[in-house]
Each structure stands twice: as C-alpha cells, then as structure tokens.
Amino acid sequence: MKRLHLYILKSFIGPFFVTLLISLFVLLMQFLWVYLDELVGKGLDFNIILEFIVYTMAMLMTNALPLAMLLASIMTFGDLGENNELLAMKAAGISLYRIMKPVIVLSILLSIGSFYFYNEVIPVSYKKLIALMSSIRQLRPEIIVKEGVFSNEIDNYSIKVGRKTPNGDMLYDIMIYDHTEDKGNVTVTVADSGTMKITKDKKYMILNLYSGQTHSEMQPNDRKKTTYPARTDKFTKESIFTVLQGMELERKDESVFKNQNRALNNTQIVYFVDSIGKQLERRRIEQSLSLSYMAPIPTNLLKLSKKESSGIKPLQLVQQINIDSATTKSSVLIRVGMINSAMANARNNIRIIEQSGDMLTTSKRNLNRFDIEWHKKYTFAIACLVFLFIGAPLGAIIRKGGLGMPLVISVVLFIFYWIISTTGEKFSRESVTSIWQGVWFSTLIFLPAGIFLTYKAANDSVVFNLNSYSEFFKKIFRFFKKKKKESFDKVA
Questions:
Q1: Average pLDDT over residues 284-305
Q2: Distance, CA of 146 to CA of 171 (rounded, Å)
Q3: Which of 96, 350, 406, 466 has the most CB atoms less than 10 A away?
Q4: What predicted TM-score, i.e. pTM, was given to this entire model?
C-alpha cells in the first residue's frame, strides 16, 4: 500500500507544480496588464521590476493554489482512469477513498500552509507591494524626445526636435522655449544640433547645443510703450544644465499602509475591528444626543421653576407640561414661535440624520472589509481541499488526462467559484447578508458538490452519460402516461 501511495503522490506532485507555475504566470500577466501603463517608460531598474514581480506573485499565490489543485487532481486521476490504472486498483479491492488518501493528506497540509502564508506572509508582501506601487506612480516617465513634437517632460523647458539619429545620441533642428522665469514664450533657443545626457543618478540633465542663437524679448522700462526691445545671442556651443525632479525612485514608508485590511493578520484584524466597532458605537450615541428633541418652551408654561427644571431631561420635562394650556392659553406670537422652532429643529435633525447615516454607512462598509478579510484567510485555505474533492472524482469519471479537457473544466469551475465568491463578498460588504454567509457561500456550494461527485465516482455511478438521463426521463414520462391512461379508463 505504501508503494501505491508513493506512486499516487509522484503522479500528482509533478502536474501540481507545473499547473501552479502556469496559474501564477497567467494571473501575473493579467495583473501586469492592468498596471502596464504605470510601469512602462519609467526606466525602472531590473531589481525593482523583479521585486515588484515577487511581491505580486506572493499576493496571487492564494488564488493560484486552489486552481492548481483543481487542475492537477483532474489531470492525475483522469490520466489514471484513461490508462485503466484506476480500474485495476478497484479490481484489486482498493476503494477510491484509499486511492485518494495520500493526496487528501497532502491537500490538508497545503491548506494549513496556505492559511499560514495568507495570514503571515501576504500582509507583509501587501505593504511592500502597495508602498512600491505608490512610489512608482509618483516616478516621472523617462524623458523621450520625439521628432516634430514639443516635449514638456523637462521642468521649465519645452523642446522640439526636427530629427534625431536612430540611437538618439544626436539631435538636429532643435527649438527650446525657456519658461524658467514664468513669463511665457519670451525666450527661444534655436540650434542646428545638440546632445542630451542624463546623469546616472537621474537628478540632472545636460543639454549641449551647437551652432545656434537665442532670441529674448525684453520688458520695456516705460509701460506705455507698445513696442518691446529684443535681444539675439549667437553661439557656437552652449550648455543647459537643469535639475530633474521626480526622476528617481523615492521609497515610501510602508507603515503608512499598515492599517489596511490586507496588511493585517487575523490577530490584528480582531483587535482593529474591536476598537473601530467601539468608536463606531460611540459615534452613533453622539449623533443621537446631538438631535434636538423639542422646541424651546416658555418658562411660564412650566409647572416647575427654572431652578427645579434645570436638572430634568427634555423627555421628562415634556411630561411636566400641560399641552392644552400651551396651545390655548399662550398668545398667537408664542405659539407661532414654538411651531417655527419645532420646524427648524426638525429640519436640522433631518440634515444631521442624513449626514450621520451616510457617514455611518461608509464606516460600516469599511469595517465589513476587515471582517471579510478575516474569513477569507480560512475560505481560501479550505478551497484547496474542496477543489481536490471536485477535481479527483471528475478526473476519475471523465477519464481524460493531459492538459486539454482538464484545463477547460478547471477554468470554467474556477471562474464560477470566483464569481460566486466575489458576489458573496460584495453582499457582505454592503451588509445585504451577514459576513459569514457571504464569504462562505461559495464553499457551501462547492463542498456538497465535491462530496456528491466523490460518492458517485467511488460507486462507479454514471454522472455524465446522457443516455442514462434520457432513460430516466423516459421512465418518468411513461409513468405519467400510464397514470393518465388508467384515470381515463376509470372515467370511461
């Protein structure tokens, strides 16, 4: 039996690592495609790009593991079924449960490792990735001067080049507008050729110009004059030295992002949710106490003196008032004043309730994100085990190995799982359902399906044979047809 278990493990581990790499590559390409515009053209060093990819792959590992488990289990057991090895094992009296036992143990270990990875490694990777992405976003693109187009990527200068060599070393027909004094296009430099170099630290740019002239419009001393003096300076060689800002990567502090939901482990999430929940409850109480429950009441309508009524709450104070006397014995001016004050208080209360309602809804939605993240660490870990109980019996039933059919089935099932999971998380975030119902909804659907498929595959039940389903419906149709005929004979 040990040899059989080793054989099953060897048959499973190879496809698992291959499919894990394929899943990571596909998910990484999808992620990079989304953020491609923020990465291209900024002259990032190779180590920065490699660091970005490593952090991204760590973030995508929780999605790649369940998909790799599903695809590898379908491939392994489909290949065993296609080569009649499963049939030979069952003929020897070995049940499917015993055949799956080593893979189940491996899946449990992967689930535990996945939870530890999600709870301990991903929060650190997330903070580093977000800090790096924020730093890259603020990094200015490389200075790329195009032919026949003005480039404004250099601070205080607008440059146009007629043509340039293929390697970009020499520039020809150069026109430069100088905006260092912020007075408009009053200084323009024209040169036959030139070179542009940026220092290695990307802090300075040196522009060497050859055979040109600079035209400058001067401001007249007398403002009443309508003509402006001008000056033209010719040069054989001139150098422009300018400071470049935002061209080097400045790392952001990771601690700025430490309170985001994905940057916390479960212990930190529990503490954070508890403290934020208490703050939210205090805010609700403060908003309720800020409401005006009654209009100002004239003191002559109270049965109590000012001194006696000073310590009484507003709702208790209302009970000390005779409403009839307040409406009949008071003058018209006092009644109108009370009504206007009550309406003003009501309008003010409506405004406070609307503002506080929106604020509390947003706070509750943000609080739900942390609760969702706490549950997701468990659901993604259990997903490895759930997909094993779906993929292994599916492979045993369809009996197709390789990468074709298993890949199609795996992608369809995983997309279906992802849609259900995302929808459930959205419902939980918007408080449509409870947190655990929304987050665990996909698991509660796929786990019974996996148990059903495992039971059917263990008992060699026909699941995907269309003839069996057609025969089943034909039996039902014949049954109702017979009942209808018997009832018709009784009436006749």
A1: 54
A2: 10
A3: 406
A4: 0.66
CA distance linking residue 402 with residue 82, whole number of Å: 10
Residue 179: per-residue pLDDT: 78
Instruction: Give domain limits for the chain.
Output: 1-139+254-461, 150-243, 462-492
Report pLDDT digits (tens) over 368-393: 888 888 998 899 889 988 999 898 88
Which amino acid type is present at position 357? G
φ/ψ (deg, to 5) at 190: -120, 135
